[in-house]
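B., you asked whether I could sanity-check this one before it goes into the benchmark set. Here's the sequence:
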Amino acid sequence: MTKKMKIRIAEIIILLIALLVVPLFVKNNYYLLVFNRILINAIVVLGLNFITGLTGQMNLGMAGIFALGAYASALITRYANISPWVGLLLAIAVGWVIGQCLGYPSLRVKGVYLSLTTIGFAEVIRLMFSNLTDITGGTQGMRNIEPYSLFGFKFDTQGKMYYLFFVITAFGFFIAWRIVYSKWGRVFKSLRDNAEAVEMSGVDIADVKIKAFTICAIYGAVAGALYAHFMGYINPSTFTIDMSTNFVIMLLIGGLGSVIGNIFGAIIVTILPEMLRFLDDYYLITFSIIVLLGAIFFPNGWVDAVVRLGKKTINIISDKRAENGKAVSR
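And here's what the prediction gave me:
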């Protein structure tokens, strides 16, 4: 195992321990709600990383995928009167279908045209749920969605849901980590860097793109299902282009292709607006300016910038100690 890999594993362990002990120190339900949203958002960004971070294809339709997962789980739970866990399995199946369906258009369009295609997809989904009033409640939304339960134990408080979401997010993180640092991950990255060279090497580009979209959609649909049973209420007006944009911002702040960065991106973009609430009507524009400046000065993500700064500081301290040692020896 290389030194770089050991450092990454140490970072992961520290991050997991920090997230695991959150409920021990945070007792306020609102703060726990924000942390639950962080975990749900992190799952979405882990999926988005495969298509936008690794293969380099812009997907602005995550809100539509998120909505399909949420409504699929909520509808089958309500009308079939079955466990939300079955709804979660249905969300996974829905994610697979979406990934297959969205993957094929990506073979013919790319760049801004793919972005417009995914935006159109998300808007179609939102309008569909808004107009199916007899099934989804239309713009009034769906209320009283049943929370998750396991062997009679209900996850009906913010603290209980936090540990459930933590386990699911950790599992999703582990899968994403294994894929990114596997043969698949290397193929995804090479497709982003030089698609022509990958094709000349005999790799089936179509199959790779569809796989990336499918993994992305499954993660997004699972997060949507968790969101529905977490909030207990869903409304089509929630799943807008703004939601998709926020997911992309999380990915950019964390750093494209960085699995650990996905978690930090979700943390920063979810918490920062809440910290700026004291600015009242100006909090959103302040948040936007911060994100814009970050994109300009830290194009590889904020996490990468912090790591580079830390390494530079350590090198400077080491050099000074070496100089002082030489001066003493003289």
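One thing to flag: The domain at 28-299 is CATH 1.10.3470 (ABC transporter involved in vitamin B12 uptake, BtuC). Otherwise nothing jumped out at me.
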